[in-house]
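Hey team,

Filing this mostly as a record. A colleague (T.K.) asked me to run one chain through the structure pipeline before their review meeting, and I want the input and output archived in the tracker in case anyone asks later how it was produced. No errors, nothing strange. Just documentation.

Input sequence:
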Amino acid sequence: MTAPVDPRVIGDLWSVICERAAHPNEESYTSRLLNDKKGIDKVLEKVGEESTEFILAVKNGVNERTVEETADLLFHLLVALRAAGVDLADVLRELEHRRK
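Output structure:
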């Protein structure tokens, strides 16, 4: 049986992404994505790339790759949200609303 994982990891990741956006650091991958000369298009390209890799991993039935690509996709989605000025809390509220 797999040990439970704290779902707050998403909120922690969101905090780091927001911190990198507010205080860019050229050594930070997140900062480089958010400050790329292509603007939001760079982040959206990564979302597209990771989406494709996720789909292929699932289609090929490779669980380990599916987990890795899901993590990559979630990360890049969060960065894209930040780049678009959308708060993660709004997305979570929408998910909560849909659950009812």
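Quick notes for T.K.: The first helix runs from residue 8 to 22. The CA atoms of residues 52 and 88 lie 23 Å apart.
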